[in-house]
Amino acid sequence: MFFAKNKEKNDSPSYCFLEKGGKGFTLVEVLVVLAIIVALAVLVIAGYQEGRPRLAVERAAEGLRGDINRARERDFSNLFYEDEGGDIIGGGHGIFIEENSYSFFTYNNEEERVDIETIDLENIIYVSNIDLPEGVSSLAGGGVKVFFKKGEVYFNKDKAGDNTQLEVTFSAKADEDIKRIVSIDSSGKVEVIYEYD
Length: 197
Hints:
Blueprint: E1 2-7, E2 13-18, E3 25-26, H1 27-77, E4 81-82, E5 88-89, E6 93-97, E7 101-107, E8 113-120, E9 125-131, E10 144-149, E11 152-155, E12 158-159, E13 165-172, E14 179-185, E15 190-194
Antiparallel strand pairs: 1-2, 2-3, 4-5, 6-7, 6-10, 7-8, 9-13, 10-11, 11-12, 13-14, 14-15
């Protein structure tokens, strides 16, 4: 391939890329194609940036739903853990939810919470609201615990009453209208409520 000057019938020069013995593209054609590619790339990047907070909120809500279901399954399976000293721990499993993270935990034999895994939320979202059921006491340091022990559901330190539910709202920091609500009811059923504006 080489760059050559091409004279047409009107003797005005135009430049083109030529293969040996083949036809080529004019410089204008190449520039038009490049301009179209750049314009499409700008549109794709702008769409990604606009949709990023919505996707982050959806990932967090679905992740919390999955982790709450994982805690419930571990309780039903009666799974236990070993601590650093080799002692068996596990007197219930749950999730402790704070503004910028949540932790998957179990209880040791002294009924102390032992965090197994902490999940940090993306820095563009946060937990904007925790709606406790009536009669459930708040925790002193904030946040909320949802845990399962011997098949029973607890919100904070209180056993979940019949037909009660806890709601945790994830919101985007840049746009409060972008939110998802994770609802946990007294039977342990977890669902994500999608609110589109």
